[in-house]
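quick one before i forget lol
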Amino acid sequence: MATSDPFGRHDWHSPQYVEEWIASATQRDEERRSILRRVVSLIPHEPDAAIRVLDVGAGYGALSAWASARVSFTKSDLGEASWTSAVVGPFDAVVSAIAIHNVRYIERIRAIYTELFGLVAADGCFLNYDLIFPSGRSAAEAYRRAQRRGGWRQSRSSAEPSADARHQASGHAPHGHVHGEDERSTPGAEPATLENQLRWLREAGFQDVECFWKEGTSAIIGGFGKEAASSSR
């Protein structure tokens, strides 16, 4: 890809920016911990089982710390299909947290789901805790209205770190912004709504695709390999 973020919200190629982002994100580890624990609890293996786990877009390792005892890191670019050559599957569980949406390009996100399916063991799973698009203008406005009225507070663990400051610096209005409403990638591309993302996972080959948890514009979604899906029936 020509840039790490076509919408100018992040500069993932800047070491200084990444350091600032990590410092901001680690301040919210405590409130995000319960969500990460939910992701790990959904893995279809016993907690003490010796399994291989791939954390996609691991960042500073918050989810990896919950999902793995021994960790090794591999550097690759999700924007390119060749990223899978940097890892050797299959994995008993593939997990991700607040990462894949940063690819921004809808076509690549859909392709990543297909690429991930090829890395998941037949009795394994893929679990993704990420930001999602509202299902339409009415839903996006409902979120904004609830936020203004104090009836809904978007969880800080669901938000991108320092979002207000980043938007102010880039000229974007921070107040009332609902993730995804202005990020549709190329004209005609399907927005990454919950409904669409679940369908993309099915089309990628995942079985028993499900939304396991949702709060505002954040959700845990995922699916299973064929053997895991069969054994659950």
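fyi Residues 155-177, 180-185 have pLDDT under 50 and may be disordered.
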